[in-house]
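Continuing the batch. This is chain 6 of the set; chains 1 through 5 are on the previous pages. Same settings as before, nothing changed between runs. Recording input and output for traceability.
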Amino acid sequence: MTTYKAINLVARPEPGPITANLFETTEQEIPQPGSGEILVKQTHMSLDPAMRGWMSPDPDSYIPPVALGQVMRSSGLGEIVASNNPNFSVGSRVMGMMGWTEYYCGSGEGLHPVQEGLDAEMALSVFALPGLTATQGLFGFSEPKADETIVVSGAAGSVGSLVGQLAKADGLRVVGVAGSDEKCQWLTDELGFDGAINYKTDDLDARLSELAPNGIDMYFENTGGPIQQHVIDHMNAHGRIIVCGMIADYNAAVPSAGPNWIPIIKKRLTIQGFAMPDHFGDVPSLVEKLTPYVMSGKIKHRAHVIDGLESAIDGLNLLFTGGNKGKLIVKL
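Output for chain 6:
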């Protein structure tokens, strides 16, 4: 094969589902790397909720939007097939931001090696953006302590499931919020959460009273939506809220109303928003922090794999409907 496919972003999304007309599939000659460059055959791509924001023309976001006509941004994993860079060897595997493309050609900046013996699904589900985000969010701001109670929204997602397991491993009481009975059962039966709440069918206030009888010390927010105010109402004084994502609002024309600030004042709560690009320089230390939990068997994951580059277009919507079960990955 002498050509490869890539998918460019050609239009900005409107509120609602992601549609095919936002993208253009191109076919190009496979390039030869220039001086200091490498050529990577990408084998797996990660689909993440943050992509919705990357597609939007928001100049105030934490990362510049994807330019129209450019390859859609994403992280992925692949094998180096040609190298003119002494820091990268042919045959080795790397992961990092490569985009919606079957081949990446460039300097390799931002790419890092994949550990030997680590399969692609584990690498992208745990040691890529989900694991880095979970580790930074949980330990970087909130100082979790044994016997505290943490509630995690989007708990069956790639980040939330890792946050809950890390907290449980450190002796916290962990309550997850998810969108189906199957996901709630996975959290408790497989991941060892102390309890789980189906936000679509459960009485949120009653379930929080039942599962967090001593109040809530930490809230790891991935979704937004009605669970927010209920959690804040149950939080203890000097509780900490880590705001990682608002997936419930990403496709909405008008964001949902935020929580009432009166209990935030009364309880002297600390609220910290964060985004991983601010912490990419800390990746080695985050991996060092995360690795012992994985090696000791305290971290499980599951991946939802779809096939083919162009499946990414419709596949992205699974993140916003809750249709994926586990880390959403495209296999090329």
